[in-house]
């Protein structure tokens, strides 16, 4: 296991859980969730998170997603694609995904300035795994697929200029994926210090079980939400900004949505990023499109 610097004060997993919306009596969407109501309901998927709180200024992290788990992700590619509705944020590897149509590396989501370090960490991890399996560097590079790293900006609540994440944090997140049995939501992993509609945002996840003719299919979603302003916030198409206390100043930003599902044992990954308050028509279209797949109802 990779050891993080002790000064990072890696927080323990949450010991108490706030109720999710279904526990409060509201069941959004047409289809039932999986057992965990999480992207981890998709067979083989593993997720690991690293959360960093250092002093009063450093609050950041990263989330690593392994589509086929730590043993098979590198060896067995899965189908993949991206869709960018109105994005300007960074998402590495998109040209390779468009050309090849598959991925065989972990996926990472972090903050804006850490993309390069996280990308490098994923590459070094891939090479290390190849050498452990007896491959030489030429063989492993022929198999190599460009890592996919996405980002949203956490600079309002984090001293992003410190750029504290590095190779060790990438290795630690992948290590955590081997034992992490749930996705920690909100202020954890890449979602640390992210804001959503003027409130605390961050990491979210959900799943739906889609009945088929001969079997059921599971669709899982993981989001890193860092976007929006209060008047646009709706739950079940009901605006809820009025009853909530006014606060926060984030009016625009980004959201990354990672979708995985089982279909004849292949996975499809979609990343969408970002979303801005200045384009309400696109916001409406995106929400409707995603809601038709029951993907934005991750509560």
From TrEMBL:
Keywords: Membrane, Transmembrane, Transmembrane helix. Pfam families: Peptidase_S58. SUPFAM superfamilies: DmpA/ArgJ-like. Residues 1-28 are annotated as: Disordered. InterPro entries: ArgJ-like_dom_sf, Peptidase_S58_DmpA. The chain crosses the membrane at residues 253-272. GO terms for molecular function: aminopeptidase activity. Belongs to the peptidase S58 family. PANTHER family: BLR5678 PROTEIN, D-AMINOPEPTIDASE. This is Peptidase family s58. The lineage of its organism: Eukaryota, Fungi, Dikarya, Ascomycota, Pezizomycotina.
